[in-house]
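Subject: design request, 100 residues
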């Protein structure tokens, strides 16, 4: 049984390994949209098609492809509780939770 942090769930995706650097941009966008809609405890799933887990991990820790991706991915209001980033090539996922 998998653990979920709550509803709603936000789904984002990118196609093509060249777009893997957008993973943080998707995360920031999810936070902004969920906060603006008044949601809390959102679990965000991002699928990076045609990207390996290694590429996804490097992009998550690296410099975003757009300055917008440099913003915070968590806030003090608990809008986002968890990001789950799925790699399309070879499967696998990366999970990032808000630290207390």
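Subject: RE: design request

Done. Sequence follows.
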């Amino acid at each position: 049984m998998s653990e979920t942090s709550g509803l709603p769930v936000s789904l984002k995706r990118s196609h093509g390994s060249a777009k893997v650097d957008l993973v943080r941009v998707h995360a920031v966008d999810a936070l902004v949209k969920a906060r603006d809609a008044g949601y809390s405890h959102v679990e965000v799933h991002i699928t990076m098609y045609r990207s390996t887990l290694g590429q996804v991990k490097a992009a998550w820790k690296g410099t975003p492809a757009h300055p917008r991706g440099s913003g915070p991915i968590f806030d003090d209001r608990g809008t986002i509780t968890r990001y789950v980033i799925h790699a399309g090539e070879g499967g696998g996922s990366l999970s990032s939770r808000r630290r207390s």
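Helices lie at 23-36, 53-61.
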